[in-house]
Structures are given as structure tokens and as C-alpha cells.
Amino acid sequence: MNIIEAQSVSVRYGSIEALSQVSFTINAGDYVGIVGPNGSGKTSLIKALLGLTAFEGEILFQGKKLSDFIQRKHIGYLPQKLSFLDKRFPATVREIVVSGVYCCKKFPKYLTKQDYKTAQSAMELLGIDPLADRLIGKLSGGQQQRVLLARALVHKPQLIILDEPTVALDPQSRETFYATLSDLHKTQGVTVLMISHDIGSVSAYASKLIFLDQRLIFYGSFEEYCNSEEMADYFKEEQHFIRYRQN
Predict the structure, then answer these.
(1) What is the DSSP letter of 135?
(2) Does domain 1-74+160-176+188-247 have CATH number 3.40.50.300?
(3) Which residues pair with 19 in a beta bridge?
(4) Per-residue pLDDT reduced to its tens digit, 83-136
(5) Over the Cα atoms of the chain, what is R_g?
């Protein structure tokens, strides 16, 4: 079953085209890595999928328009960095995780005992329940990312979107995070869509890769990526361009 279908999606910022005519389909249960050079339109694509920027074309969720997708709260989102991750921010791990249920509540938005039980389950799932009463700012980078992942998962989304979630982590924390996400994907059946600058790491876990450079260069498995004529032609063009600039 298709969970996302992007049809000729383009994103412009004034006269600058960040993304041009990108089309792809993501099936339920896929783990898709979005890769490409800096400025290739990766974050613009994520913003379009989340309804955070204007775009041309069409984005469907299970055959329905993006507006219904957003309203149903079926998306969990983990940005690259959240502004509140300051050592002085006065919130505990439990408070951060349970705040993820607000997206599904109608006014008046107040927390119930069941919400806290759900948050407890999410913390246990990610192995951070012993940290529940600690301040978020007192945790390591790897622990903070687990907390934010629990927050993104607490309302049990069908799809989780991550924007370079390991960029600030050390190598060991990065691999631990990838392994945790992979285990969630396998055991919970969550569809994963993740931007990564590290194609080597993400390819070890993702079932498919999207390679962007303003346009869709490649979409398929890592094995297909390694043998792709499209990628071979793309890198030849890039090498030619670099030599031209150097001369």
C-alpha cells in the first residue's frame, strides 16, 4: 500500500528553484534515506511533505490530499535540532515525551493519566525510562535524540520523518541511534523517511535511497544505487564541472 505519492513536486523560493518536478512513491513499511549534496533540496522536500512550504505538484497520503494527512496526525517529525535543547531548559524527559500527544488533542488540550502511561511506554520502548525525571538539558546528545524520537513516536504515527537526526552525534551515538531506529522500523512497522549526509551509514539500514540534486537523480535500493547508470552519469557530470571550475 502506498503511504506517500509525490507527483511532479517543485519548490521555489522567489526566483530560485530548490526542487524541480520530483516524483516518487513510498510504500507502507519502507525505510527510505534521502541523500544528496548540500543545497540539493532535501530539506525543501521534507518541508513540502509536512506542509511547511508552498509547492507545485501534488502530494498524496494513502491516496488522499496532504491536508488530510496533516489533520490525521499520522506523521512523527524529528528535526535536526530543537531550540529548547538548552542546559537551562526546565523540562524533564517525561514532560518532553508526553508533550508529543498534544498534536492529536482537540481544545481544551490537557494531559490525562492515559497520556502519561503512553509516554511511559514510549520511554520504555527506547530504553530511556530511567531518565524520566532528569532535565533534558543534562543529557548527552545521544540521549536527547532518543528522547526526541520517543516524543515523535508517542502518538503512534504511521510515518516518521527525520531531518539529519545524527548530525551532532559522535560516531558511537550515531550508530546506536541508527540501530534503535532500525529496530523500531522492524518491530513497530513504522515507515521511515530520513535525510542523511552520511550515505554509508544510512545505506546499512535503509531499504531504499532517494538521491536529490534539485531533481530526482535516483530512487531504488542501495544495490541498485551502486550499479546505477544514472548515478554514474551524474558523477561524471559533477567531476567535469569541478575540473571546469578549477581551470
Answers:
(1) B
(2) yes
(3) 11
(4) 555 667 788 999 999 988 887 777 777 888 999 999 999 899 888 999 999 998
(5) 19
